[in-house]
Fold this sequence. Notes:
Elements: H1 3-18, H2 21-55, E1 59-64, H3 69-77, E2 82-84, H4 90-95, E3 101-105, H5 109-115, E4 122-125, H6 130-157, H7 178-186, H8 189-209, H9 211-216, H10 219-223, H11 229-266, H12 268-274, H13 282-309, H14 313-320, H15 323-333, H16 351-360, H17 367-392, H18 395-398
Parallel strand pairs: 1-2, 1-3
Antiparallel strand pairs: 3-4
Helix pairs in contact: 1-11, 2-8, 2-11, 8-11, 8-13, 8-15, 8-16, 11-12, 11-13, 11-17, 13-14, 13-16, 13-17, 15-16
Amino acid sequence: xxxxxxxxxxxxxxxxxxxxxxxxxxxxxxxxxxxxxxxxxxxxxxxxxxxxxxxxxxxxxxxxxxxxxxxxxxxxxxxxxxxxxxxxxxxxxxxxxxxxxxxxxxxxxxxxxxxxxxxxxxxxxxxxxxxxxxxxxxxxxxxxxxxxxxxxxxxxxxxxxxxxxxxxxxxxxxxxxxxxxxxxxxxxxxxxxxxxxxxxxxxxxxxxxxxxxxxxxxxxxxxxxxxxxxxxxxxxxxxxxxxxxxxxxxxxxxxxxxxxxxxxxxxxxxxxxxxxxxxxxxxxxxxxxxxxxxxxxxxxxxxxxxxxxxxxxxxxxxxxxxxxxxxxxxxxxxxxxxxxxxxxxxxxxxxxxxxxxxxxxxxxxxxxxxxxxxxxxxxxxxxxxxxxxxxxxxxxxxxxx
Length: 401
């Protein structure tokens, strides 16, 4: 194995790739536009939808309560609610989003209140639907206020202070730094995008440098050069690795810039004071880059080996595309609630990177797990690269018909 020959092959493949518009698009243009576009669009649409939903006066229906005119009148006077006339198909209307929520007042409710007997009011909503949840929340707030007013009126009527049943207030305040808040909100999505783009960034160059050479009929010419096959495959591997790492680095940089833009969109000063301004830990981002290196080697080796087995780019694409599922599934598992990094999961490829990256951008550093992840991924990457080199030295693979 000659380092000089490896670098010569690498420089040759790099020049050819830089002349290829499709390679430049997959390495630079897509990650530069994809991540900011997705994040800014999602943030903008989400804020717009939530603000619009909060400004909307929800339509709700009152079920029963004919013998509770005081409560019905109070509901009708609430400017934050719009009452709809009773309809027997109210459940269907809620499911079809024609009605946001319904509140059921039991028979004899106000009489029960006067006697001091317990009573129960039930709220019906479409769980998980934003506007329905907001309507149900507004009904809960109204009924809680009505309950407190009832208790206060009773205490005042008996000459007792209103604070008798509410002697203190509770207040919730966030003590986590901004980067931890951001990591908790967006930490799962960031490694998912990094891993996916790292894989897709290596896919096209890997197919072009192997199956593409076969399809163009230039593989035989390359093999006739006075360079060992191991040097040839390692030079091609370095080119694919360059493409993958370029995609990953551009993705990380543009993600940091995107969070700054989102923070400016939300109003930098107000968002920073409230802890809502997206903030990422810089040291965590650097460690994410370090963790991306061995996983990029793993991806590049697997893609080279798979593409080398194919006779054409079309066939290589049919082999490589299903591998995306093997990348997406563990990366998505890292976004699931309750999945925490431990010694066992630190040995699972892709999932370990997703879980570690999610904590790193939050400023949480589990050095023992990070060392285990880096070491295990390096072992997997070395094994995959060894398989790739071995396949390149097999005649039945290079000249498969």
